[in-house]
């Protein structure tokens, strides 16, 4: 091992296993080693905050298997790093709300159209204004559906099935959503009334922060055969939606973090960071959290479904055609803040694990039974958004993902700058005007501060993140898209 194969960052040592794979050897109370999947360029950014320290802390979780992993877009989070993956034994380990995060089932969905960029040119301002007026965004309440008690209960228990029953979805939408838009383990009774009250008026809303609705054009196709299976081609218009479970998911996380502090303080005391709060597998609290989390997952899928269906109606008005005629079909919806029971090979043994993905996307290769029949022979679509001034990517689950990452890859570009710093560095109106004048990207948001917080310069290079994923074989490049219209909260 040469000097170039070892990185020492304070008391953290990383050893190069192979290209783009750095290992933090097991020492002290670590239960497993940790791995960072990054190029030298990305590693230099990852080391700037507490990501590596948080990754090391995550290896202390009971039942952690193989290694804790940081994806190429990794950055500091709440306890567990964003871009982190950790798999714990479902019988002898734990489930960690802190390792899922507050925005349960924050995720992305992409909707295809048969429109070309040429057909959209000249309508950008009309479209962005119409989308902003019709898709609720920003902090607080206000959604497409004003839910009552029965509606919220139905959403939590049945997911997108509820949306189908109430005319907000078609059968094909379910067939192209992770888990067909429903977690059967959902337990609405495990969700507090406070959480339900926070969520009932937010069904069908983007929220704030980095959540968005973006109209994009396909600029590049890298794998023609896979793109054809996904229904993608150059110059095509697509729509990307990024949001989660709103106040309901946040409250679920808060509720269970407090309960863990009271009921499992001994486990909490054994961890190097209380923000990793976890409940022992098999405990009543672990089962209740899993049921509540699955219910919040269902809520988030319905939230994105309602936004997508409203977007179809907006396109109908702007383009004067039925959405079916524009072939506005769901490509895929995938979560990137989640913990799921999955079976994986660990040292030659099939084991059921809680796979925690926090700011990481499931990326199963062809053949996994969990995939929709449409994609089972080609591999799971993976959607990786960049900043509003850069491209986004569609990948497919790579052949090496199961071995290297429990079937996972990155979830986005990953921040390099805090929101506070971003507002000091950028002026929202200037960012908006430069995007329009220099790149023909039309942005509309609730405030200039939101645009400043999400300026392209606050994110890592998504091209580099995706290059690493592709070269590692955990998520294969299929197509690249570029923003046309963007609405933010």
Automatic annotation (TrEMBL):
Main EC class the enzyme belongs to: ligase
UniProt-recorded Gene Ontology molecular function terms: GTP binding; metal ion binding; RNA ligase (ATP) activity; RNA ligase (GTP) activity
Residues the record lists as binding Mn(2+) 2: 242, 336
Binding site for Mn(2+) 1: 103, 211
Gene that produces this protein: rtcB
SUPFAM superfamilies named among the record's database cross-references: Hypothetical protein PH1602
Entry keywords, A to Z: GTP-binding, Ligase, Manganese, Metal-binding, Nucleotide-binding
Catalytic reaction(s) noted: a 3'-end 3'-phospho-ribonucleotide-RNA + a 5'-end dephospho-ribonucleoside-RNA + GTP = a ribonucleotidyl-ribonucleotide-RNA + GMP + diphosphate; a 3'-end 2',3'-cyclophospho-ribonucleotide-RNA + a 5'-end dephospho-ribonucleoside-RNA + GTP + H2O = a ribonucleotidyl-ribonucleotide-RNA + GMP + diphosphate + H(+)
E.C. number(s) listed in UniProt: 6.5.1.-
UniProt feature, compositional bias: Basic and acidic residues: 177-186
Family to which the UniProt record says this protein belongs: Belongs to the RtcB family.
Organism encoding this protein: Halogeometricum pallidum JCM 14848
Entry-linked PANTHER family: RNA-SPLICING LIGASE RTCB HOMOLOG
Region (Disordered): 177-205
Co-factor binding details: Binds 2 manganese ions per subunit.
Binding site for GMP: 210-214, 336-337, 385-388, 392, 411-414, 488
InterPro entries: RtcB (IPR001233), RtcB-like_sf (IPR036025)
Protein name: tRNA-splicing ligase RtcB
One BP annotation, GO: tRNA splicing, via endonucleolytic cleavage and ligation
Active-site residues per Swiss-Prot or TrEMBL entry: 411 (gmp-histidine intermediate)
């Amino acid at each position: 091992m040469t000097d170039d194969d070892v990185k020492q960052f304070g008391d953290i040592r990383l050893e190069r296993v192979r290209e783009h794979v750095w290992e933090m050897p097991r020492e002290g109370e670590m239960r497993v080693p940790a791995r960072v999947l990054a190029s030298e360029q990305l590693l230099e950014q990852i080391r700037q905050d507490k990501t590596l320290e948080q990754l090391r802390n995550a290896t202390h979780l009971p039942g952690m298997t193989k290694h804790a992993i940081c994806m190429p877009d990794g950055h500091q989070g709440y306890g567990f790093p964003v871009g982190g993956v950790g798999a714990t034994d479902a019988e002898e380990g734990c489930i960690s709300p802190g390792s899922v995060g507050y925005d349960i089932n924050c995720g992305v969905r992409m909707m295809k159209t048969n429109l070309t960029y040429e057909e959209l040119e000249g309508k950008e301002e009309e479209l962005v204004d119409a989308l902003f007026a019709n898709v609720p965004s920003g902090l607080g309440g206000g959604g497409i559906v004003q839910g009552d008690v029965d509606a919220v209960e139905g959403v939590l228990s049945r997911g997108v099935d509820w949306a189908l029953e109430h005319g907000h979805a078609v059968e094909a939408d379910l067939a192209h959503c992770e888990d067909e838009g429903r977690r059967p383990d959902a337990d609405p009774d495990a969700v507090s009334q406070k959480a339900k009250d926070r969520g009932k008026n937010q069904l069908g809303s983007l929220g704030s922060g980095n959540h968005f609705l973006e109209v994009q054009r396909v600029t590049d196709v890298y794998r023609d055969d896979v793109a054809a299976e996904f229904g993608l081609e150059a110059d095509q218009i697509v729509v990307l939606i990024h949001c989660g479970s709103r106040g309901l998911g946040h409250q679920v996380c808060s509720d269970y973090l407090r309960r863990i502090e009271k009921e499992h303080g001994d486990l909490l005391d054994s961890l190097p960071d209380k923000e990793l709060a976890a409940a022992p597998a098999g405990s009543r609290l672990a089962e209740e959290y899993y049921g509540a989390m699955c219910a919040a997952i269902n809520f988030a899928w319905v939230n994105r479904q309602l936004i997508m269906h409203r977007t179809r109606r907006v396109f109908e008005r702007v383009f004067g055609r039925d959405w079916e005629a524009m072939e506005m079909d769901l490509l895929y919806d995938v979560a990137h803040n989640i913990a799921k029971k999955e079976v994986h090979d660990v040292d030659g043994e099939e084991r059921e694990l809680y796979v925690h993905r926090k700011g990481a996307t499931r990326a199963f290769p062809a053949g996994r039974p969990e995939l929709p029949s449409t994609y089972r022979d080609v591999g799971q679509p993976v959607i990786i958004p960049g900043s509003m001034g850069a491209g986004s990517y569609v990948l497919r689950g790579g052949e090496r993902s199961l071995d290297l990452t429990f079937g996972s890859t990155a979830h986005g570009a990953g921040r390099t700058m805090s929101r506070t710093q971003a507002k000091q560095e950028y002026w929202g109106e200037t960012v908006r005007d430069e995007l329009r004048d220099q790149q023909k990207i039309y942005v509309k948001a609730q405030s200039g501060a939101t645009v400043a917080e999400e300026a392209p310069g606050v994110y890592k290079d998504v091209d580099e993140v995706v290059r690493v994923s592709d070269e590692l074989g955990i998520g294969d490049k299929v197509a690249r898209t570029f923003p046309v219209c963007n609405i933010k909260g």
